[in-house]
Amino acid sequence: MSELVSAFTDAAAAGSPADGTPAAVPPVLDRLRKTHASGRTRPLEWRREQLEGLVRLLREREQEFAAALSSDLGKNPLESYVTELSLVRAEAEHALKHLEQWTRSRRVPVPLGLAPASARTQPQPLGVVLIIGPWNYPVQLVLAPLVGALAAGNAAVLKPSELAPATSAMLADLVPHYLDSDAVAVVQGGPDVSTALLKERFDSIFFTGGERVGRIVLQAAAEHLTPVTLELGGKSPAVVLDGNWAAVARRLVFGKLLNAGQTCVAPDYVLVTEEAAPVLQKHLVKAVAELFGKDPAKSRDYGRIVNEQHWERLVGLLDSGTVLTGGRSDRDTRYLEPTILTDVDPESPVMQEEIFGPILPVLTVKNLAEAMEFINARPVPLSAYLYTESAAARTEFEEGVRAGSINHNASTVQLAVPGLPFGGAGASGTGAYHGKYSFDTFSQLRPVFTKGTLLDTLRFAYPPYTGLKKRILRRLL
């Protein structure tokens, strides 16, 4: 596991010291396993109580969470509510509304050759699950998966990111007051604690983070054959063909600069046709000023980079093209001005890995076909965006591009639709959640088959296989 320790250590560089220890992990797991084994988490009443407790937590402690998110990421309180608390509340309320329906057994038709008999599917909890959250949305991306885990009747260990220390401490302090502490535990700590957790056997692991650490989580889970849901990232492209240019630019800038660009589904780069590039670039510059003012450093609505290490990485990408607007930075406050780059070489550093910051490269292409070829020559992105008023172009894009999600004329907001699964494909992840998909992720759809013994209608299937039996079996099958 030395590689795992190294990976988590690299990811946690410049973060806060660990406030948990590996020795604390086994007792926590023992407690949760006993709770789940007792059957306490199975009744619908318990599941409802936990989901209602989660809603109360988010409603009653909104100000405390907003303060923690401001400390960790410089988030505006309204942005914290819109992109973190409200989304989790919506997930929990959606689960409460549909819980009885989701947990219901469903009958399945039985072939004539097996009649009389009955068959049904029955959703079952997996057991004790591990949810490892990232630092960029440290409330939403820990508690939203928890909604599915609780709705499905599981016990859960939550591991918040140590790179968002104020939010991590807030979760550890508040969760036991609102949820069953014998079934839900928050484990804080640094890389050594993450490593200790991944050495243990869980019934499912849900990881949100980067591709490199995601690979190592998957390798660690393989030791116990533990199923894993990976919510990773990647370079989500935005292709621009035509439209209301002011609206297109605003939606691109909004999606890109939410949380200072530290969003996994943010448009990572723009591919625009050569004839449309000048007008789009002009409107992008206007949109930045419209949303965040002439000096975004003074805007209360613009966040900061999570730590100095990420700030240095991002500043190092500014030389990958010509700065159309932005480019200013301040190490002390971890500020990086919203930056649009043009004249970007596809082989430049900014195009090699997910940017995860407020830098938007704009590249030109001849047409939609060339844009799709560019996208498909690279790892599968988490999201792909197309801006056009052409229905034919939208259909072509849907059929020609592989991505975790396809989105037309809007960026990032698809996450707010509970009925849509959220997840990647290929290098951007495996598995999905949100709404019913969260419940399914943390459930086993167990088949149940029942047949009486008073009339043994299966005798024709037993050896010896005479000529008559052969004819009967062939006809039935």
Offer a few descriptive terms.
16% strand; seven-stranded mixed sheet; 477 residues; disordered N terminus; alpha/beta; Aldehyde Dehydrogenase, Chain A, domain 1; globular; 18 strands; Aldehyde Dehydrogenase, Chain A, domain 2; six-stranded mixed sheet
CATH architecture descriptor name of the largest domain: 3-Layer(aba) Sandwich
Low-confidence stretches: 1-19
Alpha carbon gyration radius: 25 Å
- At the fourth level of CATH, the homologous superfamily of the largest domain is Aldehyde Dehydrogenase, Chain A, domain 1
**Structural class, judged by helices and strands?**
alpha/beta
Any idea of the CATH topology of the largest domain? Aldehyde Dehydrogenase, Chain A, domain 1
GO cellular component, one term: cytoplasm
GO molecular function: aldehyde dehydrogenase (NAD+) activity
Active site: 231, 264
Family: Belongs to the aldehyde dehydrogenase family.
Structural overview:
With 477 residues, the chain is of the alpha/beta class. It has two domains: 2-232 and 430-445, Aldehyde Dehydrogenase, Chain A, domain 1 (3-Layer(aba) Sandwich), CATH 3.40.605.10; 237-416, Aldehyde Dehydrogenase, Chain A, domain 2 (3-Layer(aba) Sandwich). The protein is 42% helix and 16% strand. It contains 16 helices and 18 strands. The chain has helices at residues 2-11, 25-37, 44-60, 62-73, 77-103, 140-151, 165-178, 191-199, 211-222, 245-257, 277-292, 308-315, 368-376, 391-400, 436-441, 467-476, and strands at residues 106-108, 118-125, 128-132, 155-159, 184-186, 204-208, 228-231, 237-240, 269-273, 322-325, 329-330, 335-336, 339-342, 359-365, 384-387, 406-408, 429-430, 443-450. The strands form four sheets. Strands 10-13-14-9-8-15-16 form a seven-stranded mixed β-sheet, sandwiched between helices. It has a six-stranded mixed β-sheet with strand order 5-4-3-6-7-17, sandwiched between helices. Strand 11 (329-330) and strand 12 form a beta hairpin. Helix 1 runs antiparallel to helix 9 (211-222) and helix 4 (62-73) crosses helix 5 (77-103). The longest helix has 27 residues, at 77-103. The radius of gyration is 25 Å and the shape is globular. Residues 1-19 have low confidence and may be disordered. InterPro entries: Ald_DH/histidinol_DH, Ald_DH_C, Ald_DH_CS_CYS, Ald_DH_CS_GLU, Ald_DH_N, Aldehyde_DH_dom, Aldehyde_DH_NAD(P). It comes from Arthrobacter zhangbolii.
